[in-house]
Amino acid sequence: MAGRVWFTVKIGAANRVDALTLFGLIAVTAMLICYALEKRSHWFILAFAAACAMGSVYGFFQGAWPVGLVESVWSVVAARRWWIVKTSS
């Protein structure tokens, strides 16, 4: 899949961002925002787990399997933390 471009977003005169890079940017941005807002609601912890899963998918599709593996572990850890917080409330 590396090198295959499904669509591009034109930035400036010559720079282009492919769909996979845009997906990765969205995943990492979602992780950052959800992590910052975790104390407001347990739903942000679940959203963080989902964003980590997105980051894992990005890592595997991009070809960086160690990133995909670590993000999948973070996703499971965050989902477990969400379950603990949700059931203790």
> In total, how many beta strands?
2
The amount of helix comes to over 70%
Alpha carbon gyration radius: 15 Å
Into how many domains do the coordinates divide? 1
Q: Spatial order of the strands in the main sheet?
A: 1-2
Which geometry do the CA atoms define?
elongated
Which residues form runs of ≥5 with pLDDT under 50?
none
N- to C-terminal distance: 44 Å
Structural class: mainly alpha
Strand content: 5-15%
What do you see in this structure?
This protein has 89 residues and is mainly alpha-helical. The longest helix is centred in the C-terminal third of the chain and has 24 residues. Strand 1 and strand 2 form a beta hairpin. It has one domain. Strands 1-2 form a two-stranded antiparallel ribbon. It has 3 helices and 2 strands.
Topology:
Layout: E1 8-11, E2 15-18, H1 19-36, H2 42-62, H3 65-88
Antiparallel strand pairs: 1-2
Helix pairs in contact: 1-2, 2-3
In summary, what is this structure?
The protein has 89 residues and is mainly alpha-helical.
What descriptive keywords fit this protein?
mainly alpha; two-stranded antiparallel sheet; 3 helices
